[in-house]
Amino acid sequence: MRTLLVALPGLVLAGIGLTHPHHLDASTAQWWQNMHIILAAVFPLLGAAQWVLLDDSPRYVRYPARLAAFGYVVFYGALDALAGIGGGALVLQNGGRTPGDEAVFRIGNQLGTVGAWCFFAASLAIAVCALLKNRLKAIPGALFLMAGSYLFLSSHIYWPKGVIACTCIAIGMAAISYASASGRSAIEPSTRT
Q: What is the mean pLDDT of the chain?
């Protein structure tokens, strides 16, 4: 169940990314705004998935990596609120883009960049810890997670690069979760006979 849950946010983001307009104008503003309202509930779930995957990490890695995951949620959420919801609302109100919109998008993108780097840092910690703990079993998951996290730095969820990024993140998180769960028994060691 954990494997499915950590993969789900990336898969949902990839699906929504297929509909993400490449340009914000009067014809796309309504969906742009509404889509980012939906995304406001989905983007933080990527950070929650990172948080879960850090459970088995050593404490000296877990705390800073969870701080990075928290940074992703906060700063990427600010991008979503400003450039997504707010930007869409401005364009709807004004009937199109205006020079006054640029400040909202500039600060939103700056905050989103910080958030994306925080996501990358937490993903790197997850990948390294998974490789050290699970060795060869963790290689596919680590590769997918890091490839997706790297693409996410500059792609948001736009088709095609962003959709590929989110799909890779979902596959990587699922594979790391599966690798760390395989070999464990459903029965706790202390109760085996």
A: 93
96-112 confidence digits (pLDDT tens):
999 989 999 999 999 99
The structure's pTM equals 0.92
Secondary structure string (H, E, C) spanning the chain:
CHHHHHHHHHHHHHHHHCCCCCCCCCCCHHHHHHHHHHHHHHHHHHHHHHHHHCCCCCHHHHHHHHHHHHHHHHHHHHHHHHHHHHHHHHHHHHCCCCHHHHHHHHHHHHHHHHHHHHHHHHHHHHHHHHHHHHHHHHHHHHHHHHHHHHHHHHHCCCCCHHHHHHHHHHHHHHHHHHHHHCCCCCCCHHHCC
pLDDT of residue 102: 94
Q: Check: CB of residue 50 under 8 Å from CB of residue 119.
A: yes
What pLDDT score was predicted for residue 193? 39
Q: Is residue 45 within 8 Å of residue 10, measured between CB atoms? A: no
